[in-house]
Amino acid sequence: MITFDQSKNRLADFAKYLPGGVNSNFRMGIAPTPLVFEKAEGPYLYDVDGNRLIDYYLGMGPIILGHNPEPVLEAVKEQLSHGILYAGQSEIEFEAARLFCEIVPCAELVRFNCAGSEVVQAALRLARAATERSIIVKFEGHYHGWLDNILWSIAPTPDQFGSETSPTPVPASAGQDLPAGHHTEVLPWNNLPLLAARLRRGDVAGVIMEPAMCNTSAIAPAEGYLEGVRKICSETGTVLIFDEIITGFRLAPGGAQQRLGIIPDLATFGKAIANGFPVSALAGRRDLMEQMATGGVLHGGSYNALPAAMAAVVATLSELKKPETFQSLEARGQKLMSGIRGALADADIDAQVQGFPQIFHVALDASSPFSNYRDSLAADKARYVDFTTALLSRGVRALERGAWFLSTAHDDTVIDETISAVAAVAKEV
C-alpha cells in the first residue's frame, strides 16, 4: 500500500520557514498532500516515502527528454567547469541562439531570460513600443505569467465572467494592482468575429494567446481561427504574440507555430527549451526585436543567458531536432491517449481525452470536446481529483488540472503500466 506520510510530515516542517511549505502556489493543494522528492530518473520520481512514481507532471512541462538525460547533464557539467556567470557574452549563448533561430519559424532574432513571466512582459513592451498603442487583448483561461497587468480571467467562475460577447476581466490574485490591468482586455478564445470587430477599432497594440490552449484543457484552435487571427492582425497593424511557454519545443521542434503553420510576429518560450533548467526566450521579427537594441526598449536580467543554462538549451534542442525524437513522442502519446480513452469507456465513464500526443487533457463527465474556457467548466473537476489521487496510490502521478505531459523516457512498458493503472482506477471511481 502506497502511503505519503513522510511527505506530509516534511511539508509541515517546511511550513516553519516557507509559506505553505512550498516555493510556488502551483505546488499547493495537491491531494492527498504535496509531495517531497529525493531524486528523479527517466520517467520516474522517487519520494521521501520510498515510492517510485511514473511522472506525468514532468516539472509541469519542462521535462521532455525525461529526468536527468545524460546529454544535458554532461553539457552542463562541462560548461560549469568554465565558470558560472560572466556579466558578459559567451560562445555557448551564441550557439544556443543560432540553434534556436534555425528551429523556430518566427525567430529572426531571440533574447533569453529565466522565466516565462519575464519574456511575456518583454513581448508586451515591444508591441506597445512598435505600435505606439497601449491595449493588449488576451483570452479567458489563457495564462501568461503572474504579473499584475496580465493576470486576468485565468479561471473566472460563471458568476464572475459576464457575457461571452463582452467578458468581464477578472483579477486572479488578492493584492493585485487593479489599475495595472486597465489596458488589458479579455475575449473568449476561438471566436474570430469578436476579435476581428475589436481589432478593427485600430487601438490594440498586441494580441497574446496560447496558439493551442494548454493551461486550461488542451484545446486546439478551431479550423481557420489562427489563419483569421493572423490576417486581421496584419490588416490592423496589431502585433500577434504566441505564448509558446508550454507548446514550444513540445508540439513540434519549432513549437505550435511549426505544427499548425501560422507564424506570429513575436513568441515566448520556456519549459521544454532546456529540459528543466531555468530558461525562457522571446523571439520574433527582426524589426520588432531590434527595438531592444536601437529603439529604446529596455530588457535586462543578471542571469539572462547563464552559460550553464545555455549549454542545457543546446543539448536539449539538439536532441529535439532529431526526426526520431518526435516520431517516438507522437506514437507513444497516441498510444497513451487511446489507452486512457478506452479504459474510461470500458468503465462507462463519459470523458474527453483531447489535445496532442505530447500534451493532452483528460476530463471526466464531459460529453463533448471543449473549444474554449467556458466549455471546460462542464467537467467534474472534483471527481477528476479523486481519480488522480487514486492513480497516485497506484504509482502514477498526473496533474489534478487534467494535463498529461509526455517525455521521450516514457517507453512502451511505462505506457502499458500507466494504462493498466488507469483501467483499475476507472472501475473504482
Written overview of the protein:
The chain is of the alpha/beta class and 429 residues long. The protein folds into two domains: 5-68 and 323-428, Aspartate Aminotransferase, domain 1 (Alpha-Beta Complex); 70-320, Type I PLP-dependent aspartate aminotransferase-like (Major domain) (Aspartate Aminotransferase, domain 2, 3-Layer(aba) Sandwich). The chain has helices spanning 5-14, 70-80, 91-103, 116-131, 192-199, 225-236, 256-260, 286-289, 291-294, 307-320, 323-346, 373-376, 381-393, 412-428; strands spanning 37-41, 44-47, 52-55, 109-113, 135-139, 184-187, 204-209, 239-244, 266-269, 280-284, 351-356, 359-364, 396-397, 403-405. Strands 4-10-9-8-7-5-6 form a seven-stranded mixed β-sheet, sandwiched between helices. A four-stranded mixed β-sheet has the order 1-2-3-13. β2 (44-47) and β3 (52-55) form a beta hairpin. α3 (91-103) packs parallel to α10 (307-320). The longest helix has 24 residues, at 323-346. The protein is globular. The model has no long low-confidence stretch (mean pLDDT 96).
SSE inventory with pairings:
Elements: H1 5-14, E1 37-41, E2 44-47, E3 52-55, H2 70-80, H3 91-103, E4 109-113, H4 116-131, E5 135-139, E6 184-187, H5 192-199, E7 204-209, H6 225-236, E8 239-244, H7 256-260, E9 266-269, E10 280-284, H8 286-289, H9 291-294, H10 307-320, H11 323-346, E11 351-356, E12 359-364, H12 373-376, H13 381-393, E13 396-397, E14 403-405, H14 412-428
Parallel strand pairs: 3-13, 5-6, 5-7, 7-8, 8-9
Antiparallel strand pairs: 1-2, 2-3, 4-10, 9-10, 11-12, 12-14
Helix pairs in contact: 2-10, 3-10, 5-6, 11-14
